[in-house]
């Protein structure tokens, strides 16, 4: 790929999604763009570049960003954050919110939904008393394709083999042909919406008791990462918890978040 072609796509993706495409990943960018060019019936990446650089429609821009997202995820990823929720976080929030009887969770880079369904299963399994509360899980992502799959709640055998205990598979999924489909009770708890973390958060988003923003900040520059964390701070309920990915550094974390260690998990409680 010619350097100016790489630069054009890298700049476009960074400007609209925050995702930094490093030069050493040029081969990956090229192979994903080649696939997109083929899907859109262009001859090759050069023709895609010519069209995009002359007349970039919002649809084409979204398609290019979509092609650059990495949607890797699986059920109960890392396990220990879910243990922390079960053992400390939800019991504490249950006491704090006993009057409102409402808990709101946000899976802020939800990809294909496994994280949101893991939260729903955890609540069903270990906190049946909460099912009479207003419990909402909002699952958002920049990738429309990933969200579409999440909303369907239909996963392959390989996907359910990753992280999901067999007992949960049997209890919360139904087999339909080659897919395992999440049951209606779990699906009713989750709302899937497109949301770009780099944009100002919509005022209708409301506030959250628990935010999972995992394995997405790693794709952003330090500046964008700090901006996203500041946006998240604005939607935290008092004493609410933020979870990042296990390998993600808290650089740029707003001062109102207090670092907490629960078992093997580091999380951040909103004291602002
Ligand atoms: C590696 S997945 C992580 C999924 C899940 N949180 C987990 O930990 O398993 C990263 C997700 O971030 C999404 N993403 C990337 N940039 C984004 C942005 N600016 N706004 C919202 N989501 C974004 C991607 O589409 C992708 O689905």
Protein model, in words:
The protein is of the alpha/beta class and 272 residues long. The protein folds into 2 domains: 3-68, Chemotaxis Receptor Methyltransferase Cher, domain 1, CATH 1.10.155; 80-270, Vaccinia Virus protein VP39 (Rossmann fold, 3-Layer(aba) Sandwich), CATH 3.40.50.150. It contains 11 helices and 10 strands. It has helices at 3-17, 26-39, 45-54, 58-68, 80-96, 114-126, 144-152, 157-161, 166-172, 184-188, 222-234, and strands spanning 102-107, 134-141, 154-155, 173-176, 179-182, 190-194, 208-213, 236-244, 257-262, 265-270. The protein has a 7-stranded mixed sheet, with helices on both faces. Strands 3-5-4 form a 3-stranded antiparallel sheet. Strand 9 (257-262) and strand 10 form a beta hairpin. Helix 1 crosses helix 4 (58-68). The mean pLDDT is 97. Bound molecules: S-adenosylmethionine.
The tally of structural domains comes to 2
Going by CATH, the homologous superfamily of the largest domain would be Vaccinia Virus protein VP39
Task: Please indicate the percent range of residues in DSSP E strands (runs of 2 or more).
Answer: 15-25%
Report low-confidence residues grouped into runs of 5 or more: none
CATH class of the largest domain: Alpha Beta
Listed once per kind, the bound small molecules are: S-adenosylmethionine
CATH architecture of the largest domain: 3-Layer(aba) Sandwich
Terminal-residue CA separation = 47 Å
The computed structural class is: alpha/beta
Major sheet size, sense and barrel closure: 7 strands, mixed
Order of helices and strands: HHHHHEHEHEHHEEHEEHEEE
